[in-house]
């Protein structure tokens, strides 16, 4: 009997303003970039290399990622590689909370266009642009248990919930 599963269809579009790690191998050669997405340690997919984009690579590649029922977030990592012999280095990563996909104002099975800040060692390092939607018979009506974030003052945040914004506060 075939198991009905839910999966994530992600289209990795592009990245912007990347800063590559300092390395002698990256200074000499042309840098190629690729993206890896993970729903858990056992489920990951990667794009092909972008050889020409430099700090603003463009992949426009669709990936299908199995989505376990316990997944709370999706990890997106941008890696770079120079030459055939060198290993890849992490440029930056972002965590996409499942609540950005399955809850909110757009149904999970419809296409969501998202941009996330990439970070490496806690520092900002570019932006990744992607689209995502859930596919499969078990996806309709799925939600992330216990992760509803209340609206404060009719304001909402996409990406990182910012909590209550008090306009009388001069410090942020």
Automatic annotation (TrEMBL):
Residues 1-112 form the C2 domain. PANTHER family: BON1-ASSOCIATED PROTEIN 2, INGRESSION PROTEIN FIC1. SMART domains: C2. This is BON1-associated protein 2-like protein. It comes from Cinnamomum micranthum f. kanehirae. It holds the Pfam family C2. PROSITE patterns: C2. One of its GO terms (biological process) is defense response.
